[in-house]
Amino acid sequence: MKLYKLLLLVFLIQSISLNIYGQKSKEEQIRKMEQLQVQSLLEQDSMIIQNILASDLLVNAPTNTVFDMKTVMKAFRMGYINYSSYEQQIDTIQIIDNIGIVMGLEIMKPAGLTANVGKTVKRRFTDVWMYKNKQWQMIARQATNISIE
After folding, report:
1. Domain 2-148 is found in CATH 3.40.30.10
2. Global pTM value
3. In 3D, which of 49, 43, 60 has the Cα closest to residue 138?
4. Which end of the chain is more exposed for a tag (fewer CB within 10 A), N or C?
């Protein structure tokens, strides 16, 4: 099963990332990467998450704390980044050379050890993607809670 997931991951990243001048626009590629991120979070798939996040990733979390890639992956594996539902509404995508900036709204229901379990959390987010090493990788993320119900 892990081999299947690895092959699927390689195929998805190549099909999304290597068509930079092909049929798919950069914006469509970024949308696919955002979808892959959401799916991976819901499925708690650390292998895919680790492959779409850049090794030099920085995250400004809703807790007003800045985390690096190592800390994010540790929190993910321990269950501190876990959602029973996660919906993303993209407001805009801006492409500047090999940088993609995504802004929008997220609505999620935390699970596991994540804060606010059982509640609905709405937050504004900004994701920054960079095309490097022949694929799009998230290099920065910022999220701010706007309501917890």
Report:
1. no
2. 0.83
3. 49
4. N
